[in-house]
Write a structure and sequence with these properties.
Layout lengths: L33 H15 L15 H5 L4 E9 L5 E2 L2 E2 H14 L3 E13 L4 H18 L2 E10 L7 E11 L15 E4 L5 H10 L16 H10 L5 E4 L4 H13 L2 E5 L7 H10 L12 E5 L4 H9 L8 E7 L6 E4 L5 E3 L13
Parallel strand pairs: 4-5, 9-12
Antiparallel strand pairs: 1-6, 2-3, 4-6, 7-10, 7-11, 8-10, 9-11, 12-13
Length: about 350
């Protein structure tokens, strides 16, 4: 096992334990003693390996000067993940936890820097499953350039939670001079997305197997900070960015319309969906506008900068299918409408209730 490095000025780290030698988690692994230390060392510390985590104190210690180098404001977010199933085509709960928190920071214009990871584990969960999830988290964090620097582990009795729940909190720093917000949309602004919508929701529903549908759709789960950096570098006029997770595209554009007191008109022909997703929704009676995404953003930019913004996203691997899908209008304030394939218009309301529970 790789020896953890020790950052300058930090207390030397303790030696890692040999590992867990039982196949499943027991309540002893949450008891605070040797079994718990073995589990933490084996599953988490060995793969999250970084100098800030190495001392294994009760908190991560971050130099303020290191934060200030990136901007003038701190961004802080927290999210919890309860997705069912834990592993699904295109990802798992660990990848989802990293991507979700990284993206929540990045859409505010922040550079994601540090994450915490807290897990609640049900007694009886296979240790190998935990190892796969932790490795997935480590790989995704590395690809996003963010470090997991602190965390917590709890074990609960059988039936007290569903296998594994994860909470991640993240901090980042917002670049100087940037002001993004849903309230900034104005008449004439363009609405953009970075690619095909609804893949995550369709992938999760297919993976549950309740409906006996064969599906090859994979989740779009991905950290978007690199794409967002490319967008902001090419188009600093961007007014708003948000990731379209639960509630999908429809929920985000309704939030923009309400916050800015404007109308929004979308073009169904320009809104990108995979044919398999549209077919999936037709069979199940779902509206793909409300399907969850974990690798898609909605952006508002001035019309004059719309094509430049689209091209910037399209130049990134996670934005190849970027599209301008609509515009802010002088319509009824707070109302979103869609120009349909057939030439008519329909109202796109805010999602009422939960279309698909435990999607993230």
């Amino acid at each position: 096992m790789t020896k953890l490095e020790t950052a300058k000025g930090m207390r030397p780290q303790r030696k890692l334990r040999d590992g867990v030698h039982v196949p499943k988690v027991t309540l002893a692994h949450g008891g605070g003693g040797k079994a718990m230390r073995d589990l933490i060392d084996d599953v988490f510390v060995s793969v999250f390996d970084n100098p800030m985590l190495a001392p294994l104190e009760d908190q991560a210690r971050i130099r303020l000067a290191d934060l200030a180098r990136h901007g003038d404001r701190l961004a802080f977010t927290s999210d919890s993940f309860v997705v069912d199933p834990i592993e699904f085509p295109g990802g798992d709960i660990g990848k989802l936890a990293i991507c979700g928190t990284v993206n929540d920071l990045a859409v505010g214009g922040a550079k994601p820097l540090y994450l915490s990871c807290s897990v609640i584990i049900e007694e009886g969960v296979e240790v190998d499953l935990l190892r796969r999830v932790a490795r997935s988290m480590a790989a995704t964090a590395a690809s996003a350039g963010i470090a997991i620097v602190t965390g917590d582990t709890k074990v609960v009795g059988h039936g007290s939670c569903d296998k594994l729940f994860i909470n991640t909190a993240g901090i980042g720093v917002i670049r100087d001079g940037l002001d993004l917000g849903a309230h900034r949309a104005e008449v004439g602004d363009a609405i953009l997305v970075n690619g095909l919508l609804g893949d995550h929701g369709a992938a999760i529903l297919g993976a549950r197997g309740d409906l006996c549908l064969e599906s090859t759709i994979e989740s779009d789960c991905a950290p978007l900070n690199g794409l967002i950096d490319a967008l902001l570098d090419a188009c600093p006029e961007v007014k708003f960015i948000r990731d379209a997770t639960r509630g999908g595209l429809a929920t985000v554009v309704n939030e923009i319309a309400e916050a800015s007191g404007v109308g929004i008109e979308l073009d169904e022909r320009a809104t990108p969906f995979r044919e398999e997703v549209k077919g999936f929704c037709e069979i199940l009676g779902l509206d793909p506008l409300y399907l969850a995404n974990e690798g898609k953003i909605v952006a508002v930019v001035p019309a004059a900068a719309a094509e430049r913004a689209r091209a910037a996203m399209a130049s990134h691997p996670l934005g190849r299918d970027a599209a301008i899908i609509g515009y802010v209008t002088q319509g009824i304030a707070g109302r979103v409408v869609m120009q349909t394939h057939f030439g008519g218009k329909r109202i796109v309301d805010m999602l009422v209730g939960e279309q698909l529970p435990r999607i993230c």
